[in-house]
Inverse folding.
């Protein structure tokens, strides 16, 4: 099978529409592809429809522009590109880029440069200085794109405005989470008998994202009450009551998030009661990640990747030997008893 997992359309810096991109791929013998526009998912639906039309498998994709020591582009695939929080994060980034370009235009005007910004596409998520430079060349305000940067737009120049820079790890977090479609499909393929438990803490944060700050504490108590119930049936009933209460509080978005996602946070109820608090969150691995971050920040700068890996592995070995090796996180006898009871009942 021929695949192409890195394509762009007019939604970012490409020259063809999403449908035209899919058709070109089909004509080139590509059977599966992904549309990975820069910081933009607005063309994915069109690409998927075109894929159905032309017989090409289209995966949702994106190329996130990030910056650490240097510019880093992160490709993400098969994620929930319609997730409201994800879409909002992209929109926030787009707004920051728009603000930067607006400020750049204002600086140009302050320098008495008669730049006309009406030709700029402010809906382009990848809008940047290069688009301004190209327009300056078209309007006769600079000889070349390089000249526009050298005179006005380059770092330290008169019209330079520092840009929005998404950190690499923040970019990864946008794509990958405990609700990532790619992760869920991978778990189902590798562990077909496993049950999916969404982290309740991440679920709470997802709900809080659409709750006014003044009401977060009250909503937190309501959500915790769901997972404090003695059975899955009781938790479901409590969830219905919380959804209704959130509706009365005019928190419709929060109510919808609870209604749509609460069921996948209740998988732990199918396991022994003694294990409930251990398996309904990702706290154990997040505590370990936090400890690794703390240690690496103390060092600050590593000479190479192997030195960083040595520190991380040494810390993992220490934790495994002093903490995980000396006490049980879960007593598996409770699970064995439950399985025996189920087999007898069957």
């Amino acid at each position: 099978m021929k695949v192409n997992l890195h394509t762009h359309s007019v939604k970012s810096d490409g020259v063809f529409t999403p449908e035209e991109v899919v058709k070109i791929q089909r004509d080139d013998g590509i059977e599966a592809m992904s549309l990975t526009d820069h910081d933009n998912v607005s063309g994915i639906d069109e690409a998927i429809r075109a894929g159905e039309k032309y017989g090409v498998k289209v995966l949702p994709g994106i190329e996130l522009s990030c910056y650490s020591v240097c510019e880093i582009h992160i490709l993400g695939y098969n994620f929930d590109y319609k997730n409201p929080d994800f879409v909002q994060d992209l929109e926030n980034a787009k707004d920051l880029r728009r603000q930067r370009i607006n400020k750049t235009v204002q600086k140009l005007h302050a320098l008495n440069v008669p730049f006309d910004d009406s030709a700029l596409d402010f809906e382009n998520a990848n809008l940047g200085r290069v688009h301004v430079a190209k327009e300056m060349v078209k309007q006769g305000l600079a000889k070349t794109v390089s000249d526009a940067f050298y005179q006005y737009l380059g770092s330290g120049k008169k019209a330079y405005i520092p840009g929005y820079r998404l950190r690499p790890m923040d970019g990864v977090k946008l794509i990958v989470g405990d609700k990532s479609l790619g992760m869920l499909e991978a778990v189902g393929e590798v562990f077909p008998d496993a049950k999916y438990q969404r982290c309740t803490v991440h679920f709470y944060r997802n709900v809080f994202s659409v709750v006014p700050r003044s009401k977060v504490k009250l909503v937190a108590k309501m959500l915790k009450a769901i997972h404090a119930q003695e059975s899955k049936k009781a938790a479901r009933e409590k969830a219905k009551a919380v959804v209704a209460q959130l509706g009365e509080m005019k928190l419709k978005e929060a109510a919808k998030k609870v209604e749509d996602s609460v069921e996948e946070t209740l998988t732990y109820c199918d396991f022994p009661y003694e294990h409930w608090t251990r398996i309904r969150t990702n706290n154990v691995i997040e505590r370990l990640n936090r400890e690794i971050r703390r240690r690496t920040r103390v060092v600050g700068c590593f000479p190479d990747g192997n030195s960083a890996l040595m520190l991380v592995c040494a810390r993992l070995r220490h934790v495994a030997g002093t903490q995980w090796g000396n006490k049980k996180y879960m007593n598996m006898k409770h699970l064995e008893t439950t399985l025996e009871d189920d087999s007898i009942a069957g």
User: Anything to note?
Assistant: DSSP finds 15 helices and four strands in the chain. The longest strand covers residues 57-67.
